[in-house]
Design brief:
The chain is of the alpha+beta class and 500 residues long. The chain contains 16 helices and 9 strands. Helix 4 crosses helix 7, helix 7 packs antiparallel against helix 8 and helix 15 runs antiparallel to helix 16. It binds adenosine monophosphate (AMP) and magnesium ion.
Amino acid sequence: MNPTPTSNPVLIAHSREVGELLGIDPEWFASEQAARVLGGSELLPGMQPFAACYGGHQFGNWAGQLGDGRAINLGEMIATDGKHWTLQLKGPGRTPYSRSGDGLAVLRSSLREFLCSEAMHHLGVPTTRALSLVLSGDLVTRDMFYDGHPRKEPGAIVCRVAPTFTRFGNFEILTARQEIDNLRKLVDFTIAADFPHLELNSPDLYRDWFEEVCVRTAQMVVHWMRVGFVHGVMNTDNMSILGQTIDYGPYGWMDGYEPNWTPNTTDAAGRRYAFGNQGEIAHWNLLQLANALWPLFEQEAPLQHGLNRYVDVYQASFQTMMANKLGFKHFESETDAELIKELDKILQRTETDMTLFYRSLSAIKLDGIQVGELRDLVTPQWVGELLRSAYYGSEPDPSGVLNDTAHWMQRYLRRLMQDGRCDSERSEQMNSNNPLYVLRNYLAQQAIDAAEAGDYREIENLLELLRKPYQEQAGKEAYCKRRPDWARHKAGCSMLSCSS
Ligand code: AMP
Ligand code: MG
């Protein structure tokens, strides 16, 4: 299954870190060959392209066979870390699984996938990586909002990189077809290739493997919750068996904190994949995987064990994550569970930027202040000033928001004082868990608008900025501001479709 050659491949961006990881000569990326290979027009010796077959549960229903309709694996490389990494082109033309699709991808979605993969990596979120972004030179017709307004858009191809691109759906399709021998082969292969630390001769091998998939998935989603990422399409065909974020489509970053928010217009009615549902949905997806693995277990206990572990690990990781965000030494259930619950409400009282809110908290200075002074210090006005950069409304106190927030803040600061740590120690912990720069939807859209006009500099700017998302960078003030008003309802900035 070879990629389809394109008319004029041009490499417009690449990740130097992924290049280094793979041991690729940095100069190679400037060559015509790089654009041809990474755009699917030329195969290098040893490449044996293939597309994978998978099924999936989409929006809660079994959708039958899907498969790599527009992704082609070029092969594996042994990288400088001694491990194997698969290179996969997304958007290189039709495959046996394309169904009615053209197998192509457009610049806007490819650019978003390229940048977000790398941004997530630098945030410390498990993710597939992106090596390159190539313009194909061909035009691709898409009806962005499925409303009868198709337009021709520049085609593009991302080269994604991961140890494997195997998804839950690769297992599901085999069980659905009663290909149990193949199911066993795929599980054994996956374990041998990607879970080599598991004890192959153990009678509990499959149980341990499923448990690890559950644990990794839990940890991944907790990271999403930490940084304010909404995947947007958590179908089981978009769930990596490695617990890595995969398939960047209509994803989004929360600007104003809103657990019910999803950027995906296709999911606007049901909000199945909204921010606050992601933990439960991943569990549901693991249940579908457990069902698919049933023929290899034929008993409930080991599968239930993994699912239970998911719940436990999710809860414990979530609590630790919140403690880190808030600057507590440890999560103390007696005080912190209630504080966090209240915070969730406070953040929704008035539109509050999630990213900027947490960074504002870490700027609070408590050194030299006594508990008794908090009541006088933490007034609604003080809160208003502290959180000014995070509030979207111009008058954030129409209904006592600042008053209520001040109450919460007093309890919160008392809690911080209990830990007895100095400001610098606490803020260091907070600032390494709360990013300052995230790939806000409108920032990606600006890079897209410029790129569609032939200017690729903003891709490079964002790539560079997002290499150090936790570190304040001189001259980059514009990138850590609230989403501007003009972007509130603009396509691509606040809402996205699956059309890509
Ligand atoms: P997604 O919603 O992007 O995860 O895609 C769901 C399924 O549709 C996957 O099997 C994709 O490979 C397939 N698909 C999406 N877009 C195209 C396309 N343009 N051509 C062929 N298959 C596609
Ligand atoms: Mg997909």
